[in-house]
Amino acid sequence: MIPRVHKRGTRTIGLLYYLYGPGTHEEHVDPHLVAAWDSLAPDPGRDPDATYADLQQLLDQPVEAAGGRRGKPHVWHLSVRAAPEDPVLTDEQWGEIARRMVAATGIAPVGDDAGCRWAAVRHADDHIHIIATLAREDGRAPRLNNDAARAQAEARRIEAEYGLRRLNAGDGTAARRPTSAERHKATRERRERTPREELRETVRRAVAGAQDETEFFDRLAAAGLLVRRRVAPSGDLLGYTVALTDDRNKDGEPVFYSGSKLAPDLSLPRLRERWSRTETTVESPEEQAPVGHRPVAAGPAGARRRAAEAVWQAVLVVDQGDDSLVAAQLTGAGEVLDALAKTSAAHTRRQLRDAAFAFERATRSHVRAAAGHDRALRRAARELVHGGPALGRGEDGATTAMVIDMAFFLVTAAAHWHARKGHEQQAAAAREAAVHLRAAYRQASSYPLGVLHERGRRLSLAVQRRQAAVVRAALPTELTEQVLGEAAWPALAATLADAQAAGHDPARLLAEAAGRRELDSAESVSEVLVWRLRRMADLPADTTAIPPVGSRNTVPSQGPATTPGQRSDQQRKAR
Fold first, then answer.
1. What is the pLDDT of residue 392?
2. Is residue 279 included in any domain, yes or no?
3. Residues with pLDDT less than 70, the chain
4. Domain span including residue 458
5. How many domains does the structure of the chain reveal?
6. Cβ neighbours, 10 Å, residue 120
7. How many CB atoms lie within 10 A of CB 371?
8. How far, in Å, CA of 356 to CA of 202, rounded?
9. Are residues 443 and 492 in the same domain?
């Protein structure tokens, strides 16, 4: 249940006209009173003899008696909305909720006969509006300090008592929710999301990896948005607004939203803060390559390999860093997810898009991000965007699976951190993003793991025994038996053989991969280790690649013997 205290107004009659009227998009149905300060209050919705003016005059009487209504805002407005999955409440139930809300907020405390006058109007199944005038019957002003917070607290109690969906307590950092009118309009126009949500997603993608406002505005234009810039008389840019080309108001004009109305961190000043704490130059792939590693190829595959490394380093920071460093990593993680969604192949696009959309809420809290510590992730996001779409351009899905696997661990670590800090909404958002990332991983990893699985099956028995001995030497006994019994074990065996062929000590590498972070929560430990090893050993992204000639540890693969659709459910588990 979502209560929202609206901006105070000066015209009681104006708000009544809106509440009892058809709405901006004909979405108001059967407007009527469900409760009021007086059981005899006139209801223009159900009583043909009652008028809006009758109700307005009664509501305004205490204000006029106190000498008010001289341009000073005196109209208080609260909307209370049920969650979409909640049952439809009766008028009696909504009336009781209205009474509890005016009591909790200080409009009409329980047992106080001199409280403010108020009325609750219902014009839809899922919500009510409460209008009140801010003068008590005894002439004093009501005490409304923290009325929004008190309304939220009462909503949590109502949810528990009525068996409604339990929402997490907010902290004031969430993006503004679409209004009822926006949702009705989106439904009528058969949009998947409201224009506000579409714009927020598009703007966030334009921000991902952008270096400055010039590049940002170029990306907005390239995305097909209508953009207006707010310029001061001095010529300084103060802000911006954006609109969809096909979202029009009743006069046929585009509906514009400012960045701050889309999300708190999308205002131009906040974006400038982000750009100012990031390097203005981007290192070349060769400059970024770790010492002793071969340079990573450019393009989508190289960008994904470097993103996987940056994301993994962020996981370690979130696990061990102080709060300001963690907050910076989460901001950067949001940009990486946006960039992945923007450049992903069709079969993973929907889940990655939903993951980025959900995780957006987890990037914001009252913990201030340390300046510059999101640089590596922002650089990774930039490379992903500039690397372009993945599949069909030197990327067979292996590096996509690798970076999604790492992103899953980062998002899971973020959920744990937010939970420890008491950030309930952010923790829930991160958990939701993890669900989508797990689904995207299954889709991305199916083919490359199928290739590795077949290569592992084709290893000679002697080589398979040697790789099993490596596992027994590197992992604890209980973990060894689990790994050797998993469906993805052949893929891990092939990866160990690849690592040995590349000159690595597979036992040492495997022990390091297993010790970097707990594996208890993994559904398939073998698959997690496959991607850790391939990243750590800098193995080719192309899983069909044959190790150097002369290696006695592997045999050539004739290509995948399985397809994504042929693999068992157990083989497709991400962790």
1. 56
2. no
3. 24-26, 68-71, 168-170, 277-298, 390-396, 517-518, 520-521, 541-575
4. 285-566
5. 3
6. 26
7. 14
8. 11
9. yes
Amino acid 139 reads G
Instruction: Let me know if residue 23 belongs to a domain.
Output: yes
Amino acid at 540: P
Q: Quick check: 455 and 447 in contact, CB under 8 A?
A: no
Cα–Cα distance, 30 to 508 (Å, whole number): 72
The alpha helices in 263-298, defined as continuous H runs, are 268-276, 285-288
Residue 110 phi, psi (nearest 5): -60, 130
Amino acid identity of residue 266, one-letter, is: L
User: Distance (Å, rounded) from C-alpha 336 to C-alpha 319?
Assistant: 19
Please report the pLDDT score of residue 523 as a whole number.
Answer: 78
Separation between Cα atoms, residue 323 and residue 560, nearest integer Å: 45
Tokens 């902290």, residue?
Answer: 171
239 and 305 assigned to the same domain:
no
- The answer on 427 and 561 residing in a single domain is yes
Residue 506 backbone phi and psi in degrees, to 5: -60, -35
Residues 158, 81: Cα–Cα separation, whole Å: 12
- Residues 502 and 354 placed together within one structural domain of the fold: yes
pLDDT value of position 298:
62
Residues 470 and 333 in one domain: yes
CA of residue 303 relative to chain centroid, distance = 23
Same domain, 317 and 420: yes
Kindly state the tokens that stand for 108: 């009409």
- Residues 207 and 314 both lie in one domain: no
- pLDDT given at position 541: 55
The amino acid at residue 496 is L
Instruction: Give the ranges where 244-369 is alpha helix by DSSP (H).
Output: 259-262, 268-276, 285-288, 299-320, 323-343, 346-359
- Consecutive H or E run containing 131: strand 127-136
Beta strands 75-81 and 2-5: pairing type? antiparallel
Sign, Cα dihedral of 258, 263, 269, 273: negative
Kindly give the interhelix angle for 180-188 and 195-207, rounded to the nearest 10 degrees: 90
* Residue 206 belongs to some domain of the structure: yes
- Quick one: pLDDT at residue 101? 97
One-letter amino acid of 87: P
What is the Cα–Cα distance from 259 to 216, expressed in whole angstroms? 12
CA atoms within a 13 Å half-sphere pointing along the CA-CB vector of 377 = 32
pLDDT of residue 505: 94
pLDDT for res 172: 75
Q: Do 356 and 414 share a domain, yes or no?
A: yes
Tokens of 347: 């079969």
User: In this structure, what token pair is assigned to residue 508?
Assistant: 């040492």
Full strand arrangement of the beta sheet holding 257-258:
226-231, 237-243, 257-258
Q: What is the signed CA dihedral for 162, 168, 170, 176, rounded to 10 degrees?
A: -80
d(CA 295, CA 455): 26
Structure token digits, residue 171 = 């902290």
- Domain-embedded: residue 253: yes
